[in-house]
Each structure stands twice: as structure tokens, then as C-alpha cells.
Write a structure and sequence with these properties.
The complex is a heterodimer of chains A (about 625) and B (about 375).
Chain A lengths: L1 H10 L9 H36 L1 H12 E6 L6 E2 L5 E13 L7 H11 L4 H11 L8 E4 L4 H10 L6 E10 L7 H4 L2 E3 L2 H6 L10 E3 L2 H5 L1 H5 L3 E7 L5 E8 L6 E4 L3 H11 L4 E7 L4 E8 L5 H4 L4 H9 L8 H4 L9 H10 L9 E3 L2 E3 L6 E3 L7 E3 L1 H6 L3 H21 L22 H8 L5 H7 L10 H12 L10 E5 L7 E2 L16 H13 L16 E8 L19 E9 L6 E7 L5 H19 L8
Parallel strand pairs in A: 2-10
Antiparallel strand pairs in A: 1-8, 2-3, 3-4, 3-5, 6-7, 8-9, 10-17, 11-12, 11-21, 13-16, 14-15, 17-18, 19-20, 20-21
Helix pairs in contact in A: 11-22, 15-17, 15-21, 17-19
Chain B lengths: L1 H18 L4 H21 L4 H22 L3 H25 L9 E2 L4 E2 L1 H18 L7 H20 L3 H17 L4 H21 L2 H11 L10 H11 L12 H4 L11 H33 L4 H25 L17 H19 L7
Antiparallel strand pairs in B: 1-2
Helix pairs in contact in B: 2-3, 2-12, 3-14, 4-5, 4-6, 5-6, 5-7, 5-13, 5-14, 6-7, 7-13, 10-12, 12-13, 13-14
Classes of the chains: A alpha+beta (about 625), B mainly alpha (about 375).
Chain lengths: ~625, ~375
Amino acid sequence: MKRRLGNVRSTAPSRSGIKDAHRESAHFRTRAIAGFILIVICLAALAARFAWLQIARHDEFSARSDNNRISVRSIAPARGLIYDRNGVLLAENAAAFKLEVVPEHVQNMQKMLDSLGAVIALSDDDIERFNALRRGKHAFESIPLRFKLSEDEIARFSTERWQFPGVSLVPYLTRVYPHGEEFAHVVGYVGRVDAAEAATLDTDRYAGTTHIGKTGIERSYESQLHGEPGYEQVEVNVDQHPLRVIRSVAPTPGKNLYLSIDARMQQAAMDAFDGRAGAAVALDPRNGEVLAMVSVPSFNPNLFVNGISHSDYAALINSPFKPLLNRAIAGNFVPGSTVKPFLGLGGLELGLRKPEDTVLSTGEFFIPGHARAYRDDKRGGQGRVDLVQAIAHSVNTYFYSLALDMGIDRFSAWMGKFGFGQPTGIDLVGEASGVLPSREWKRAHFNQPFFPGETVIAGIGQGYWVVTPVQLAQALATLADRGVRHQVHLLRAIQNGINSAPKLLPIAAPQTSFLHNPANWIPIQQGMIDVVNGGGTASGIGNGFAYTIAGKTGTAERYSRTDETWQNIMTVSIEHHEVLFEAFAPADAPRIAVVVALHAGHTGAHDAAPIARAILDAWAKYDDDKGQTP
Amino acid sequence: MSSVIIERWLRQLRRAPRQAFLDWPLLVALLLLAFCGLATLYSASDLDGKLVLNQALRLLMGTVLMLVIARIPPNTLRTWTPWLYAASLLLLVAVAVLGQGRGANRWLNLGFMRFQPSELVKLTLPMMVAWYLHARDLPPRWITLAAVAVLIGVPALMIAKQPDLGTALLVVASGVFAVFLAGLAWWRIGALLCSAAAIAPLAWHFMHEYQRDRLRMFLNPESDPLGNGWHIIQSEIAVGSGGWFGKGWHHGTQSRLEFLPEHTTDFVFAVFSEEWGLIGVLALLALYIFIVGRGLAIAANARDTYSRLLAGSFSMAFFVYVMVNGGMITGLLPVVGVPLPLISYGGTSAVSLLAGFGVLMSIHAHRKLLPR
């Protein structure tokens, strides 16, 4: 080629002005052909590149293209409902309306919020939360501004909505607790998922979920109530703007729960408290089911669902009565004389006493060799009493002496069989364990030996003793079922979908009775019957009741007495006593065991027993073994 | 009587080839391409009728211009060439002073349309080089090359200054092709290529930062997938997801959902590839290669040096536009703002290309009488 070109140059009539058109044209042709070949090679390379991308790597790019355009969004499942044992709704999902704002459609946010505030009440909390939610969201995403609009507000907004482009009424499901305060401590409440929870949650399951159980049943059965989320594949554009739904899978609603509580008994208990601070727990001693459980004062759980306002929350937190505390499982009470039947049974079981053994009550009891007097409630004492009388009249001396004879080690081992000093394991979060006096406990907490005087007062449920109402109720139920302990529980049945029958939960096999001699139970039962029906400390409380009630009062001192004089207990400020009453019925074949504890009162008989009676009345009125299926 | 009429008609028919100023195969191929372009634009713009109508009007304007130019004899065009070249240089100066555009001054606002003088240079520059070489001894010597280098360099530098490196390179290419076709000795070509390679690192020094970014991204687009690498990655995804047969017209998700930027202009080829697949791409490339081949054939049969060089270099430059755009959207070449000829949305490019094909048709009409 080069040689040929050289040729051309040498033979061209250069500088002559006459061009060799023929040769030039031929030369051009070779160049054009060379150029065309070059072009074909280049285009072949380009075509090969296309083939490489479109055929060899097609799958990869196809997947990446789908990744671009398809966004998967979770659809939160509807939360399971909660019923009482008879199917009364305790927690439901109600259709409600919320106001949502799409920021990109609002020209001047501040102006809009100001004028919207004139139509619908917007608190500072609402606006603060709204602004917090807006951060980190796309301008086209809908941000909630106000939840649960009233009908009035919906009507007002509907007529003015033309003024507010970008603001819309959005229907949603909100959790509603129709019984409010009555079940606040049992059912608990849901609230918005907070940052700490979000960090630990299963992000797939909770992707579309805004609310989570915070307390009570809502919390302990969160995994059953939540359900499984559905999802939809949405086609999105480059701004993540959803354009259409490609595919959607419906969520599976959460399971419905049936509690063992009877709402009518719960209501009766709540009414009977009449606002006095305390708690009551009623159990079925045959199986550990909770029939009623109240803690007073209570609060309105509905306030928490969509974010409680600062002022409402401050009022609850600052109240001296601590309405948020569930006293039934976490309230600490000194059990006082309510422990006497348990101790009396221990005396018989351990062979320290026979039922007919008597003790002389003089009004004062002395540990041999000690000068300190431990008093009876009655000046001058009760005279000579046997076990039945000692329970019926709550004679301290009998139990001082018995506790001293038993010694602290056997005492705490025996009482431990009833579950004192340990959480019951009820299906609620936040249970306290109480305190059962023992050598180990004292060593651990005070690093001191246990003194005989402490054993003596432990015998009447004073000193280091602390119980929770549910713990005492479990002990009472164990006593009522003649030494058979049942797991205390609230959940009775689970329903998987509204169309299927609720399935009763299998009840854990009860332990066998720990009593060596079943006959030992009889004098205890008799003593407790006499408390109510035999002129005992709670005389008259069982009048007119369909069954025989067996009970025991407790009036515990909250503070040490500062002087050695006897006082008329009814004239002492009620602030000085925690008062309790425990009862089971029918006395022969107990089907209910109830414990009532009040933080303040004159005596257990005077203040706590009437509440227990009201609960028993409600139970007797509605008790119908046949009808107790969900 | 009738025999006289028939005889006259037959005589006209015999004379017809000389008067036919249209090259039908080329015209049909161009119209096919334009139609293809409009259909792709309609899809790429998400059925924006206004945009397509706009482009159709420009294509129509270009076609009219093509038909008008086709009637002008090459000799006349040759005498106008220096003036056209000078006028386009003046327009480049005007752009530098009055120009508009995003980040770069490329457009002149004429009121009824925006006009991009650099597109005009793509036509006037090969004309000027052909005009110059027409009067010189060929193959060219160094001294001739030096003069040609000035003719090419002045507008190229002005365009590069806008800055529009892509178009500047294409303008250089069209001039260089004229020299190549003029028979520049291979050893001179080799020498020029070597010296070009030697000064290439210097070019890096004179580049704008965004141009360097584009080069870096070309080498490794995944290093910044949401930023500078976005164009290349999304374009490759669009092309690759097309497969053999494509996703179908207006079913290309990459463009419809706006993942692919500039999907009506520089990246319209990616939309086409996504929707028509490899089969469509090969068909389109075949159409382009037919047009280029036809242009070179016209050049080979042209009557004089000017016509030959002009037709040849214009055709080869046309191929380069396709190659650079196709290379860009497939990640074979760096991102340079070069439209796909007659498909990308853009008036000046379409009109000046069609004007160029008008010149080709004029050369075809005035080809040598006896094919060799």
C-alpha cells in the first residue's frame, strides 16, 4: 500500500495545476472501501457489545431493572381482638379517621397549619409529632397529623376541605378499649412503636405495623395478637412514587384471645372499690383461671393508643395514687393475719400441733427469757383458744407460739409451698415477687442472722412479709383446693380467625396435693368458716349468700407503733393500716377464691370484706358452669 | 400526433436519470429512520404528543431543506462553501457571547426555536476541508495538512470551549475523514496517531472537572452508582434488560419510570434497545450501515474532488455519531453528549443532518455519467 502511494506521488503532475482526476478517483475508492471496512468492524464490535449486554447478561440486568421499579410494601395485619370468657369485647379495632398531609401539595405549611387549627383542634403535641414524622420522609408521602377525629370534627373539616389541598381524611383502624379503666391493668394498651422497640423488632413482620402492645395482655401476647403482614408489590418511579400495584398478598389477622375474666365480675369489683386505692384478684381454685383482677385507681388506656398528650401523662405520673401501677401483680402489701390459716395448717402437717391443742391468750406473749411483749389485738387476751377459735378470732398468741415452735427454716419452707416470696408466673409483665421472711433472704438483704422475735411476728404476717394480691390469691386457691397448686393465668382460649371455633388452652397438669394428711384441712376450713359465720372477725359478711363462705381478715400495720398502749383500732387513722380480706366459696367445694387488699382502711373486715362480698355476689349471680364457654 | 407525444415522453424518460435529484434508496432509508425515531420518542417521552409533533415539524423542515439543497449543483455549493464556513464561525462566536444552555453555552435562541451552531459546523467544516483540498495536489503533504489543521482546529476549539467536548471531537473527526479520504499517506497517518497518543495526557489537563468525572465513571461506573455513575449504570440496565426481543413499545420501565436520564435525547438509544431488544438494535444498526454505505457509494461516483471528499467524510462522520452514541449507552465509550442521528430529540441536529443528506443527493444527481 505504502509503496503504491509512493508511486502515486512520484507520478503525479505535481505543482502543474492539472490534477490527475482518474488516478485520484481510483485512490479515493480504495480509501472509501478501507473506510467502509473500518466502519463495519466498528459496528460489529458495537453489535457484539449489545449482544453481550442483552443476551449474555440479560438475566442480571433484567433483575436489576425489576429491582429499580418494584418496591415491596408491607400491609399491616389487623390486630387480634380480646374478649372476656363470655365473648364480651375488651379490645377491638374501630374504624376511625385521621388527618394526613402530603407536604408536596401544601404551599405554605405554617399558614396551612394555622388555618387548619381554626377548623380542627391541633395541640402543640400534634404539630410537634407531625414535624418529627416529616423529617426523613419524601415530600409526596402522607404524614399523619391528627388521629381519631370526632364526628363533629369530620363534619367541620368536610365542609372546609377545599381550603386545604394536600390534607385528607384517611380511614384507619384504631385500637379501642370499650371498658376503659376497668380492664386497663389486665388488657393493657398498645402504643406507637418507639425507637427502642423498632431496633429489636423483626423488621419483616413489623414492616407496616405502627402499634405494639405496651402493657398487659396486649404485651404478653403480642406475638399472637399481631398476625402476619401481607405485602404488595408496587411499581415505583425513580422518586419512589408508587404508580400501580403489581401483586398483593393479604395479611393474616392476629389471633383473637379469650380471657378467663368475667367482665361482669370485673365491673362489680371496680364499683365496690369506689375509688379506694387497692387491688382485688379472684381465681378459680380448681384451675388457676383469673375471674377478676382490678387495680384501683386505674386510668383510661384509650389515651395511650395514639400518643398520650404531655398534660395527660403528667397527671398520671404525678398522681400520688400511682394509677399506672398494677397493684394486683406489683402492689406490695403486708399480709398480716391473712397468713394465719396457712401457718395453722403447717402446725398440723408438721406435727407441731393437734387441732385440739389450746393456747392461753393473755394479751401478751413473751419469748422465754426475753422481756419484750408481743401483743394480742384484744386487751386481756382471748382466753384459752384452740386452732379453730384462733383462726376465727385471729388470736395472735396462738400463732406467735406456733411460729416460734416451728422455727424460721421450717416456716419459710412451708409457706414457700403456697408460692409466697415468688412471682406466680401469671401471663402479665411486671409482676413483683413479694418477700417471704427466711434466713437466706435476711442474710442476702441485711447480712444478719434471723432473730427469734422476727420469727414470732412473721407468724402473724408482719415484719419482713410482703405479698402481692395475686400471690396471696394463688396461696388461698392452693389452700382452697387442699394443697394443689395451679398456674395462675388469664388467657383461656385462642381463636384463629373469626370463623373458627375458639380453642381452649390446655391447662398445665396440676401438681398433686402436698398435704400429708387431708384431714388436717378440716379445722382450717372450719376456722375460716367461723370467721364469717361463727362470730369471728368478719361476722355477718356472709349473710344472705347462697353458699357458705370461708374467709380470713388481715389488718396489717404499715408503721411500727410508737407507744405500748392499746388503741381502739377504729379510731386510729386509716392511713396506718393496710387491710385485706381473703375468702373462698363454697366452703366445701371451692370454685372461687378472692383476695381484696386496700392500702388504707380501719380493718380487713370493715373495709376489704364488703368488696370481697360484692365480687362473690357477682360471681354467684353469674356463675353458671354451663355458660362458661367463649 | 400521438407518436410525437410518445416520442417526447420517451426522450424525457431517457433524460430523467440526469434530472433525478433524489436518491430514492437513501431517501427511503432516511424516512424509515425518522419514522423509527418519532415512534421511539413517543414512547420515551411517555406519549408526549406535543414533543413528538415538535420533532416531526423539525424533521419536515429538514426534509424540505434537504430537497431544496438537493437541487443546488455541487459547484454552486462549492463556491458558497467559504462563506458558509465563515458564517458558522460567526455563529459560534455569537454563542460564546449570547449563548444559553444548562451549564454550557451551546444554544442561540432564535425566538421560534433554539439553534445549536455546533451542529451546523458538523456540515460546514467537512465542506470547507473538501473545498480546500479540492484545489490542492492530492494526496496532501504536511503543509496542506497544517492548513487543514487550522481549518479544523478553530471551530473545534470554540466548540470545546462551550464546553461541548463530544461535538468538538465529532467535528474534528469529520474534517479528519476528509483528509483520510483525500489519500493521506498511511505513514503520515501513523505519525499523526502516534503524536496524538503522545499529547493525550495533556488533554486531561485541559478538561473540565465534569469531563474528567465522566471519564472516571466510564472506567468504573459502580464506584458512584447514585451520582456520576448513574447514567451509565441505568443505561446498561435498560439495554441489558431488553434481551432478544425487548419489552415492547412503551413497555420499557427504565425510561417510563424515569430511571434512565435524558431518555429522549442522548439516551434514546437505550430506550430503543430496552423496548426492541437485540433484534431491534441489529435492524437499526443495519439501517444506519446501509445509509453510510449508500453515502460512500455516492461519494465514489461523484464527479469531482470536492464532491467526493464532502460526501465521503460526511457519511463517515454520520457513522461516528452512531458509534459514539451507541458506545456511550452500552458503556463502551465515555459519556459524551452526542445525539443518536435522526432519533434523538433535538432540532438543529436533525435539520443539519438532513441538509447534509441534501448535499449528498445533489452530488448523486450530478454524478459521473458513466459509472465505472
